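hey
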């Protein structure tokens, strides 16, 4: 819009001589606004320091005096509006957790390079930790990094952090870490993030990561010091049966029974791949004799899984880590149950169904077991045998690549599950590959199943 006066005189106002020029309006005077100073900078925390500053730096908050003196738009317009409530100030814990989540999202695409750098820094700071890793350090280092970032991202939710500590400490102890090594772990993690954090990494972000690690590592370090049970148990392979070129069933008898619940998994180390731990889920509910049954599929690029399928033999000695995982039935729920399993993910589902059969009043349960071909459904016969004995259990098989098989449903697991009915009032348990879990969970959420009704154990590689 031009600042020049209107030409042509403008509209005629009644009662005023058109020949007289209109009085000029008084110039509007604006109240001066104080400049907003930049937020104070918290002193830089060196990566070797284990403590975090008491107050986390905040994102460019305006000065309180300037905000009070500046006129609001409603005052300038002459309106009388009720004052807006002051925004809630972010706690230091919430700030740290948020920064960790945001920064991790930026670097996760380069997690392998970050894990290698993390391992190199860790070995230079604590040379004794090199013996805990195999020759190829990328994969175990990646798992260790993620096991540290996960609790750091929840330091603003104490209840969730408390639930994470126990299973993570079990994994760290099984790896061979002790309480005194958490500080070099933190230094190596922050150093690796500093290198790969890119433009998202600055002093404020570094402060947030140091604070989050301090808050997360404290409970884990205390739990390691307080642990009374052995970190690992030895066991002997007493049976190895190869079902196909990429699938095998292995039975292991531990020297001492490993306490676990149906649906949980154990981390194992095998002689063919020393210092390379893998998570395997027992296919049976806990047995009085302690015998463990594992169903193993050789996956592409899987060093341990291929060795287990092709080379595991009777008499091999395994190391078994403590049980972990949250897959299981909510004891406080009375809802019916839906279990969806893909491939060898049927093993923990079978264990859960066997455990339910031992209870006096099991809830109605529907199981969808899926695979590419019928041979992938390793636990189908045992699940159907249970269903014949117990009226509360219904079992449906799904084969994606064999739509003409009369014993199975066609299509993918998510498609078959959605065709099966309305599951919005059920507790849903998912077990299988990360791809299958993501696809099924997304389909169920879109179909109206509440998020807090869906549970699974994500195996992050």
């Amino acid at each position: 819009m031009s600042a020049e006066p209107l030409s042509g005189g403008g509209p005629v106002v009644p009662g005023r001589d058109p020949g007289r020029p209109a009085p000029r309006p008084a110039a509007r005077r604006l109240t001066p606004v104080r400049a907003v100073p930049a937020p104070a900078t918290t002193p830089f925390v060196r990566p070797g320091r284990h403590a975090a500053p008491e107050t986390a730096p905040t994102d460019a908050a305006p000065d309180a005096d300037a905000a009070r003196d500046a006129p609001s738009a409603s005052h300038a317009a002459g309106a009388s509006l009720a004052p807006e409530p002051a925004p809630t100030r972010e706690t230091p814990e919430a700030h740290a957790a948020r920064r960790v989540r945001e920064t991790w999202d930026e670097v996760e695409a380069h997690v392998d390079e970050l894990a290698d750098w993390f391992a190199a820094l860790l070995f230079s700071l604590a040379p004794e930790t090199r013996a805990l890793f195999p020759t190829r350090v990328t994969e175990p280092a990646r798992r260790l990094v993620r096991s540290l970032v996960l609790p750091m991202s929840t330091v603003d939710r104490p209840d969730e952090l408390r639930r994470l500590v126990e299973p993570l400490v079990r994994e760290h102890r099984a790896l061979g870490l002790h309480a005194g090594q958490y500080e070099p772990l933190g230094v190596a993690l922050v150093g690796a993030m500093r290198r790969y954090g890119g433009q998202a990494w600055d002093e404020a972000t570094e402060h947030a990561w140091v604070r989050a690690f301090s808050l997360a590592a404290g409970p884990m370090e205390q739990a390691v010091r307080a642990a009374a049970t052995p970190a690992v148990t030895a066991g002997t392979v007493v049976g190895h049966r190869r079902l196909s070129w990429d699938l095998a069933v292995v039975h292991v008898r531990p020297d001492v029974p490993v306490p676990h619940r149906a649906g949980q998994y154990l981390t194992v180390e095998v002689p063919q791949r020393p210092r390379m731990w893998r998570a395997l889920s027992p296919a049976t509910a806990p047995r009085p004799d302690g015998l463990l049954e594992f169903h193993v599929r050789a996956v592409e690029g899987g060093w341990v899984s291929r060795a287990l399928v092709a080379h595991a033999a009777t008499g091999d000695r395994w190391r078994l880590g403590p049980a972990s995982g949250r897959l299981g039935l909510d004891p406080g729920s009375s809802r019916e149950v839906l279990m969806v399993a893909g491939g060898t993910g049927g093993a923990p589902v079978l264990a859960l169904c066997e455990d339910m059969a031992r209870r006096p009043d099991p809830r109605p349960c529907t199981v969808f077991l899926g695979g590419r071909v019928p041979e992938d459904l390793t636990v189908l016969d045992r699940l159907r045998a249970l269903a014949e004995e117990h009226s509360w259990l219904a079992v449906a098989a799904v084969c994606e690549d064999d739509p003409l098989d009369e014993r199975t449903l066609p299509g993918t697991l998510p498609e078959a599950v959605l065709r099966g009915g309305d599951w919005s009032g059920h507790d849903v348990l998912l077990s299988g590959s990360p791809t299958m879990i993501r696809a099924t969970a997304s389909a169920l959420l879109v179909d109206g199943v509440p998020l807090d009704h869906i549970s699974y154990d994500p195996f992050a590689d």
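The first strand starts at residue 233 and ends at 244. The mean pLDDT is 82.
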